[in-house]
Structures
1.
Amino acid sequence: MKPAPFIRHVPRTVAEAVKILSEVAPQDGRVLAGGQSLVPIMAFRLAKPAHLVDINEIDALGKINNDGKVLSIGANVRHAAFHKPVVEGPLGTLLAYVAGHIAHYPIRTRGTFCGSLAHADPASEWCLLAATLNAVMVAHNTRGERKIAAKDFFAGIMSTALAEHELLAEARLPLPPPDTKFGFYEFNRRAGDFAMAAALVAYRLEGGKMADTRVGVGGAEPFPRRIAQAESLLEGQPPGDKVFRAAAEAAAGAVEPMEDHQTTAEYRRDLVRAVVRRALEHAAS
Ligand SMILES: Cc1cc2nc3c(=O)[nH]c(=O)nc-3n(C[C@H](O)[C@H](O)[C@H](O)COP(=O)(O)OP(=O)(O)OC[C@H]3O[C@@H](n4cnc5c(N)ncnc54)[C@H](O)[C@@H]3O)c2cc1C
């Protein structure tokens, strides 16, 4: 099938983009970023936006900035930009590792980091990363900008706190201390598929004990989130198999898993148990 007819707008600045978006959003106008989610949906006529605000010609949105405290990722930065570390230290290594799990190479050359956040697929790797690392999203509208913490950004399956007339201009990731250990693990049946469950964990060692512990779970619930019950079990403990298993069990017990045509809630709960334990082992390896 072919998409329903639409008008494509090509702004050159963020101000121009949000002005157009404010005018066309009430007529189901949408932002077009990498098009790797929106275009297939349009081709199947599951979405029939009358207007597309194509942001690909806005040069200001194509940048990654590092001010020493925060890594800012502009709305036109592609998944493939992270194939090589974009910043020294554990965050650059983590971003490169996670990027390799997103879809397939051609999709990664077009799809964007911020597009993934705005699209908010429950299994999106970047959404999991944003939730676990307490990212801040910067939304622009005709009246200015507003910052949205990750815990307030994701609202449900493919649903966010962005208003229909707002452009997600950038995502900000706090730079972790250099001694942070990260672990990531996702399960899918075929390489490149969306994860059926995924976990991202982080901790530092203070006197041999885990500190600043993070356990994020994605793909299991309508949106990714940190699991406090697992984090508190790990905090202050030396890393090891017993405590990793206990944290994984706590995470499995804390989630309310989605069901779909191929996965029961209990199966997904088992997956959460497995991916959290394996992510913790990855961090410790
Ligand atoms: C075969 C296949 C496999 C895939 N596998 C994975 C996977 O394993 N993991 C994964 O995370 N993704 C996967 N994807 C999706 C891919 O990562 C997309 O690139 C991503 O979801 C959306 O980014 P985009 O830039 O392409 O956004 P688009 O498709 O352009 O837009 C998606 C939605 O977000 C909105 N939007 C985009 N950017 C903005 C913005 N800056 N401000 C406001 N709204 C915005 C659009 O209006 C639209 O509603 C897959 C896609 C395909 C086709």
2.
Amino acid sequence: MAKGADFILPSDSLPDIFTVNNFTEEQRLIRDTVREVVANTITTDDAVRTIESKDLSFSRGLMKSLAELGLLGAEIPEEYGGQGLDKVTGAIIAEEVAKQGSFACTFLAHTGIGTLPIRFFGTDEQKKKYLPKLVSGEWIASYCLTETGAGSDANSVKTTAVRSEDGSHYILNGEKIFVTNGGFADLFTVFVQLEGHGLTAFLLEKTFIGLNVGKEEHKMGIQGSSTTTIVLTDVAVPVDNVLGEPGKGFRIALNILNLGRFKLAAACLGGGRLAIEQSLKYSQDRKQFGKSISEFGAIRQKLAQMAAKIYAMESVVYRTARNLEEAIGKVDTNDSRKILKAIEEFVVECSLVKVFCSEALDFIVDENVQIHGGSGFCEGGPERQYRDSRINRIFEGTNEINRLLAIGILLKKAATGSLPLMSAIKQVVGESMAPSMMQMEPEDLVERLTYYLNNAKMAVLFAAGSAYEKYNVKLEEHQILLMALSDCLINIYVMESSLAAVAKNKTNLNTGLVKLIFNDGLFSVERLAREIIPMCAEGDAQKTALAMVRRLLKFTPVNQEELCDKVAVDLLKRG
Ligand SMILES: Cc1cc2nc3c(=O)[nH]c(=O)nc-3n(C[C@H](O)[C@H](O)[C@H](O)COP(=O)(O)OP(=O)(O)OC[C@H]3O[C@@H](n4cnc5c(N)ncnc54)[C@H](O)[C@@H]3O)c2cc1C
């Protein structure tokens, strides 16, 4: 079984990862069914117009119809009315529903951060009371953590809970902002400071007196999704509605976000696929200078790069989905401590995948607009997707916070010895002194790229070691350095996952895509490692370190013109 963050350790062999080629018959069937339902009911012109007008009763109706297909309870155990399906299937569903950005936000907030806190941390009574209603679509769920003064700094929540004198309930006061589904939610998971305990989660029903929904935000994108404030004025909440242990709200909040992050990445993949389909079609239809614009190299390069990003997204999303499933699937889901531990195992990967996929989607939707020219900028073209995509880098933890989190957890794993990072770094530094380090580059593509990947890992470990040696526990004060290290991790995870996927399914197209992914990834790691060294070393030590990085990251770049052309022709043929 995979261990969290072990992808960074050098190895001569590739991991045996789960890929889309490993989908079961049932998973394929679910994908095809959801795809058809989405096409017929959610992405039709009429449905999109109604969703985007923020007709929340229409969205509620759509949620109901998805509930009838079992999609709201896909990952909820059967005893609460759900389907008891795995995380891979959850990712497949997220990918398909994401073809409509606003509705995807409604759906994912409900099924993810809205429902999962109860599924994982609720008591038997809470699960019996609320999960069947959420699974059937009778109730809509929301998650309320953010406040005016508590965004990224979630621990500084000011909303309070005080126990009533007779001890029968708590009194809650405060205000939450940016609550997705706030305008039509029936259940609110609210994180507050419980007197004498600290951050604690509570389950609030819409009918609780003193709970008031504020005005809808007018947003840049996902305009059809509801985002409101929630004002709590002396709301009396029964003691039975505390979710999880008092004072353990922060861990619950962050770990639910973790699962939310991974789902968000799957949704970005779905958005990316939609955008490239549009680009492929438009570039063939649109004629300029007497030919389809898809015949121009500049456009072909865009199509090839978009596809490479999608292949990379697909590889990291399904690898992570399966790893999460294996970690969570083997623990008793009634034991919240074990659940927390299982989710935390892949916390680094969840953050990296969220950052990578949200930024990859922004790249793709931007190129989609560009390929559409002026039509791309005007209403009715792909401009809405461009606007919708932007939120993904902000919510579920901003990408800066996720970058910091990923590298922070990795260093913690190294410090506690749960990941043998320090010995790996020592070995890299030792080997770097040995003149025989560089071997001949292997002929076979997968072997050659594995060799490049290993060298890139060594360069990253070397850079991380230099940083740790210089700053030690003060490293957390050096954010620019940490951001660069985190970007190195993203590149390594993306390259390894894509290559491991290709090794299992070596088609001409996949091979071309992985070459593009490596070209980009290796150049990025080289640049980042060379930026990191001057932050950690001076004088001769700096020169030696830079030379070492250059030696490790020696690779032959691809012929972009030839490769992008080949990949684009293949893509255009397949549509
Ligand atoms: C449409 C929408 C829907 C949302 N849905 C929900 C929801 O359902 N439930 C919910 O609880 N919240 C929700 N949010 C809130 C969202 O999660 C927060 O907006 C997000 O976490 C960022 O917080 P903030 O807006 O206060 O930004 P800030 O925390 O003020 O950040 C501003 C900038 O500073 C950077 N920054 C902050 N701290 C640091 C640091 N330590 N180091 C480096 N950089 C830093 C950030 O990365 C960002 O670039 C939603 C927001 C939006 C816009």
